[in-house]
Amino acid sequence: MSLNDAPDHIKLAVDLIALLEENQIPDDTAIKALQIVLRDFQQKQTTAESDHASTAD
């Protein structure tokens, strides 16, 4: 499978890895930053799901 045929989340992951490596971001810094980003997006998703559920009633 080529990257062009990969799902969007795989393409994004590859792009993020390349960005971090090209900028020589230390692994521990990248991991800490990605954990913050993950928590932020999970919170946004939870809030959106909660808002959707409350408007569906």
Describe this structure in words.
By secondary structure, the chain is an all-alpha fold. It has one domain. It is built from two helices and no strands. The longest helix is centred in the last third of the chain and has 30 residues, at 27-56. The protein is flat and about 50 Å long. It starts with 7 loop residues before the first helix and ends with a helix.
N-to-C order of helices and strands? HH
Strand percent estimate: under 5%
Shape: flat
Number of helices: 2
> How many discrete domains?
1
E-strand count = 0
The low-pLDDT segments are none
Q: What's the structural blueprint in terms of helices and strands?
A:
Blueprint: H1 8-22, H2 27-56
Key terms for this structure?
57 residues; Pleiotropic regulatory protein RsmS; mainly alpha; flat; DUF2496_YbaM-rel
Short account of what is shown:
The protein has one domain (3-56). Helix content is 79%, strand content 0%. It has two helices and no strands.
